[in-house]
Description:
The chain is built from 13 helices and 11 strands. Helix content is 41%, strand content 13%. The structure holds pyridoxal-5'-phosphate. Residues 80, 139-141, 166, 168, 216, 219-220, 245, 247-248, 274, 286 line the site of pyridoxal-5'-phosphate (PLP).
Amino acid sequence: MDETDFRRLGHQLIDWIADYRSTLEARPVMSQVAPGEIRRRLPAAPPEAAESLADLPGELEATILPGITHWNHPRFCAYFPSNTDLASVLGDLISSGLGVQGMSWQTSPAATEVEQVMMDWLRQMLGLPPAFTGVIQDTASTATLVALLCARERGGEVVYASDQAHSSVAKAARLCGLELRSIASDEDLALSPAALDAAMAEDAAAGRRPCAVVATTGTTASVALDPIAAVAGLARRHGAWLHVDAAMAGSAMILPECRWMWAGVEEADSLVLNPHKWLGVGFDYSAYFVRDPRQLVSVMSTSPSYLRTAQDGAVANLRDWGLPLGRRFRALKLWLVVRASGVAGLQARLRRDLANAQWLKAEVDAAPDWQRLAPVHLQTVCLRHRAADNLALVERVNRGGRTYLTPAILRGAQAIRVSIGALGTERRHVAEVWEAMREAARA
Ligand SMILES: Cc1ncc(COP(=O)(O)O)c(C=O)c1O
């Protein structure tokens, strides 16, 4: 593509994205296509000759959009918020336009240094002490794998996590060749320190050394809060690494009034949260903080002759801070999002979402046919209809297009999760989602 075509098409596509965002509300939230439907719209083989892209916006409308589930739709309430603020879209555009490969400091000093500054901005926004140093990983799953690889170097063979921990913890333990011990959660679905203590003591007595504990701030199914301070004390006593998975809920820690939820986090060896969930930074941007970056680098670094540069030793080569060699210039996204909203703007949006969740909680608690299944700490409300087949109800609501909800099983009960927090979600959207659910239950 030459620069003339790029300019023309690029301007058109910026308009197209802006129009898409402003008309989102009129679209069904969950894609309504059947398996194979999008695939059939595409030629099976690549074009031999160059093709015109002049009608790309039209093609996107006809071929791609029907197969899009709209994560930024104001009535999107599935899984977790995965917001991409338009400022973040521009950050990605700049990153691609520059075509940066930031594997080493020398391969683009700005990529490394902006990332270092952005991770420190984020640390300050979260109220974390200066003892933490951050680096971007692609996902929380990778960050947790990196954490357990680092923990393994310190010894031990057993990893502990609550039965509510995300599946990425089990995957990481398996990939590290470590044994995972799943600890029963308490009535609030949080990790029970007494049960953890008993399991660690039992293993230690049997000669199985505790390696790491993964505590979750905001579990995936119900946003339960493991008691970090108590868990940190046990991890320390047993010589185990403490990794805190705050993938979704971590964004809320930009609100000082939420920080009690991870009290004790300053004792963690490592910590992950995903600004690519609730904060508005487009996927992917997972923030990984460690207390001892030298240990991280000692586990992750390689120094083949073809990667050495004159500055090694004087600079951070971020390829040595994680698994991949190649690195995008992702810090641009956080840079633009924080500047375009300001910390106060981000805080206001999250507080709006917390208030909307409390509103829905009160509605559910007042509805005799519905039962709430977990505490509402942040933006997720877990509930069930007392008489309906709740899985069928979710399917019916999603097929109707008014919202997109996902299920989970909590203590054996089929729950519907209403995860609030898309960028454009106002009270009226939450009220519409609640109405769609009640209508589906009446049908
Ligand atoms: C608590 C928790 N940990 C980890 C993950 C995985 O996140 P990622 O997709 O960044 O690997 C999730 C995603 O839902 C999560 O809720």
